[in-house]
Design brief:
Structural class: alpha+beta
Order of helices and strands: HHHEEHHEHHEEHEEEEHHHHEEH
Strand content: 5-15%
Number of strands: 11
Number of domains: 3
Helix content: 40-55%
Low-confidence stretches: none
Oligomer: single chain
Strand order of the largest sheet: 6-7-9-8
Largest sheet: 4 strands, antiparallel
Radius of gyration: 23 Å
Mean pLDDT: 93
Number of helices: 13
């Protein structure tokens, strides 16, 4: 759901403990009917809750993670001008640069916003300075605004539905569910490895919406979101990458789109070390560390030829 400036102003009123429509209307300079409409939209988004008593309708920030993060952020930094940047294209840009740096061209391609509009909005996000710029790429200053970072992250991945969001932008969603009846969309990641020669049994369903035919490049990059702290999954991803003769040049945009550039950098180094290293353990920080023996075991299962160049003692 897109956030409007009026919705942000209303959330600020709720954070100030204004609970009735007349008070909120007076503070926000909006009509009571408009406030009622916004309250419904915020409730649907999981950001506000309604209750009725003898005194009439009461509004509060919801108990959801983004609403709680917003409350915490406002109480710590009440004088920040949230109504000037937490809405529209500016909010979408902040969510896209939250975890990894991106160029204007990449931001435009992901969001569907014109490059000129991206640049205009970035200029408006310069006071206060809500991004870092380095070599033409923009990133969010997490250490400077940790509470804003938490709010943007919880807002970006929040859903009131029975699923866990891994990535979301506009109408596109990558999510996981445990129950097959909620697996709406196309299966992707590890669930779709079998379509490309690496069959994996899982206890969850990883889905992509809207449902389009997914390439091996998309399936692989989506699976990078699943690796986390499991060496076994890392080994399967290595098997998929090698068995399908994948090339970094073909997945560059997808890695940036899904915030997997840093993870893939370690992934590629892991493969290089596997080919050449004499050390038994390959250490990583973003993705899990893994032993050469574990990689060899998984490659053998999936019939991937030994690609090592290292010398055996």
């Amino acid at each position: 759901m897109k956030m409007s400036k009026s919705m942000v102003e209303m959330m600020l009123c709720l954070a100030r403990s204004m609970e009735t429509l007349p008070k909120i209307a007076k503070e926000s300079k909006l009509s009571i009917n408009r406030c009622s409409e916004l309250a419904t939209r915020l409730e649907k988004a999981g950001l506000a809750s309604k209750s009725r008593s003898r005194k009439g309708l009461r509004l509060r920030l919801a108990n959801s993670s983004p609403a709680e993060s917003f409350r915490k952020m406002y109480l710590a930094m009440p004088h920040m001008r949230y109504g000037e940047f937490l809405y529209g294209n500016k909010l979408e840009i902040l969510k896209l640069i939250l975890y990894e740096e991106k160029s204007v061209k990449t931001l435009a391609r992901i969001s569907g916003i014109k490059e000129r509009t991206i640049r205009e909005n970035l200029r408006q996000l310069g006071n206060p300075q809500l991004y870092w710029r380095k070599k033409g790429k923009y990133s969010f200053p997490r250490q400077g605004y940790p509470l804003l970072f938490d709010f943007l992250g919880s807002l970006r991945n929040f859903t009131s539905e029975n699923k866990r969001i891994l990535w979301k932008c506009n109408e596109e969603e990558l999510f996981k569910v445990r129950d097959a009846k909620f697996a709406n969309g196309c299966l992707t990641g590890l669930n779709a490895y079998g379509n490309f020669g690496v069959l994996v049994n899982t206890i969850e369903y990883f889905c992509s919406q809207p449902c389009n035919r997914l390439s091996k490049n998309e399936v692989f990059v989506h699976s990078m979101l699943e690796i986390k702290n499991e060496p076994r999954i890392l080994g399967m991803a290595i098997a998929f990458y090698l068995k399908n003769s994948m090339e970094k040049e073909n997945i560059g945009f997808l890695l940036s789109k899904y915030d997997c550039v840093g993870a893939f950098r370690e992934f590629k180094r892991t493969i290089d070390e596997y080919k050449n290293s004499k050390s038994e353990l390959i250490k990583n920080t973003i993705i899990p560390s893994i032993t050469l023996r574990e990689i060899e075991r998984i490659l053998d299962i999936y019939g991937v030829k030994d690609v090592r160049k290292r010398q055996h003692n």
